[in-house]
Amino acid sequence: MVNLSYNLSYTLKERLEKADSLRKDILLTPLSQKTELQMRWDNLINRTYYSLALADNPLTKPDILKILTSYTPENEISRKLTTQQQDVMGYKKSLNYISQNWLVTQKNVALKDVLILYDIFCKGDLIVSQSQLTEVLSYVQANEDHPIIKAGVINIGILRLQPFSQGNGRFSRLLSYVFFYKMGYDIGGLVEFEKSWSQDKQTYLEALRISLEAASITLWLEFFANSLIIQLESVLKKIQNASPEHLGINASFWSLNDRQKSIISMFDQPGLTITNRKVQKQFRISQITASRDLSRLANLGLLFSHGKGRSVYYTKV
Fold first, then answer.
1. Structural domains in the chain, sorted by start
2. pTM over 0.90
3. Mean pLDDT of the chain
4. Rg for the chain, CA atoms, rounded
């Protein structure tokens, strides 16, 4: 069994309380829908960029922005993506899957859930026994610990175990988000911790080295909690100043036309799913126009897309 013992040190307890206070302030600060969408989009780009940068993906933030804003599920099969571009799409799809399937749920994270998420993200293989990975998951979920502790423990647990043939670092970060979302600590989709690691990679690598060698992971949890505090302080400041990053996106990206607004209103019917063909028929538009409308709504975080190619359908977030 991988050793994941820790204690609730004074520093760790203090940082958990600080993070909780910031979370409360963020959730209680009024925020317009447009600004919230912009900040969630900025956060998606940052999560993807900084996590992949830690794995030495050479793509720049504008590169990633271009990939994600031009993507449509219908053309995914025909598009020829480089390995680095595939990493971007896999990471984004994984984050979508987490927000869709793990937001505030009582169900435990089981081995099959981990393997499903890994298959979305990466095409490597499990190289340890299933029981070893199950033991780590059981340890993380054995007690009613703080979400930050669970997210930090699963992160270092995967890094210590190295259960897959590739992508363990990136996948450990994705699993942290599973526990944040599962326990309602997603903070409106604004939780993120990789930015400070990527911007000060030397400190991150040193903290990681010490934590992988130490008998206790307490210092890692203190480091992990502090990384979250840094990001939440930045988020709160942006909210208070109503100043999303925008990341070079034209203001028109956030504007919906009347037809797109009507598509959203179609989801007033509970449990509705729609397809490109249904939108074509409803609004008497071409397949390309319907695809652009649906992709824009999905890119803005207003719809979830499911499937590939012609089998794609959409549900409301």
1. 10-241 (1.10.3290.10), 256-316 (1.10.10.10)
2. no
3. 89
4. 20
